[in-house]
TrEMBL record:
CDD domains: PseudoU_synth_EcTruA. Homodimer. The gene is truA. This is tRNA pseudouridine synthase A. Residues 31-126, 167-268 form the Pseudouridine synthase I TruA alpha/beta domain.
């Protein structure tokens, strides 16, 4: 017997069902600098979160309480150029109001770049088919003052070729228990990595990783392991040993949040969401563009 559909704001809507009369669903493309923010998710004890700022701004423009759902929650200090959210509202507004109007209500660290009316079956989290992150590393004897909160600094030279060799062991579908945070609540540790590129872009070393979904701290833990390989502390095949151990303690140090960017979320073409450059501005390359960069030595 089929269960009766009961509408929940921002919730999944089964095929064939619709939103209540007068309710519309809107998706937004969001960018933020996480340096002074306490992560994406709203917290009882902290107002400086992306969700709190967005919900306050959206509620102001809609003249009604608005809550939202995001494609992927990011930790404190982590940035995004390609975050996607959606919300349900009864407010009738032109799409530009959800961009320009909302931006007037937001702090400088958070910006909306596009808005689109989406069908009831669109869900920012559950409709996503793939996500991509970039991790930026500045390898230099001294730390840059200008980009202190936008990249991760290391004083050690990194062997990019060794990092690339180590990265190959992680491609494909694996049990990523060794690369998940101990507090990760995902039911399964199995994920499929479709891209893991390492290249030099200007003065930066950039990792680009794409997967169907990610575990908590997964990208930062992968980065920490590859940086150990790049410093020459471990050989490339150690990455496979860490993966096969299925033991988080075997994987070394979690890389800092500062260099991590959520740059893209992929959805089925039927939703026709606007396309944008993955960024950040420090890396003016299209998604997948790192594979064309030469893995120069340290």
């Amino acid at each position: 017997m089929q269960r009766e559909y009961i509408y929940k704001p921002n919730g999944e809507v089964p095929p064939g069902e619709q939103l209540p009369d007068g309710v519309r669903r809107v998706a937004l493309g969001v960018e933020y600098c996480g340096a002074r923010l306490r992560g994406f998710q709203k917290q009882k004890s902290a107002a400086q979160t992306v969700q709190a700022y967005l919900e306050q701004a959206l509620s102001s423009i809609a003249a009604e309480p608005v809550t939202l759902v995001c494609a992927g929650r990011t930790d404190a200090g982590v940035h995004a150029t390609g975050q996607v959210i959606h919300f349900d509202t009864r407010a009738v507004r032109p799409l530009r109001a959800w961009v320009q109007g909302v931006n007037t209500q937001l702090p400088d660290e958070v910006r909306v770049h596009w808005a689109k009316a989406v069908p009831a079956q669109f869900h920012a989290r559950f409709s996503a088919r793939a996500r991509s992150y970039r991790y930026l590393i500045h390898s230099s004897p001294t730390r840059s003052a200008q980009a202190a909160a936008e990249v991760t600094w290391t004083k050690h030279p990194l062997d990019l070729q060794a990092m690339r060799e180590g990265a190959q062991y992680l491609l494909g579908q694996h049990d990523f228990t060794s690369f998940r945070a101990t507090q990760c609540q995902a039911k399964s540790p199995v994920r499929e990595l479709t891209r893991l590129d390492v290249a030099r872009v200007g003065q930066l070393i950039v990792l680009e990783v794409s997967a169907n979904a990610f575990l908590h701290h997964m990208v930062r833990n992968i980065t920490g392991v590859l940086m150990a390989v790049g410093r020459g502390e471990r050989p490339p095949h150690w990455v496979k040993e860490v993966l096969d151990s299925r033991d988080r303690t075997a994987g070394g140090v979690t890389a800092p949040p500062f260099g991590l960017y959520l740059v893209d979320v992929q959805y089925p073409q039927e939703f026709a969401l606007p396309e944008s450059e993955p960024g950040p501005l420090l890396v003016p390359l299209a998604l997948g563009g790192l594979s064309g960069q030469q893995p120069q030595g340290s």
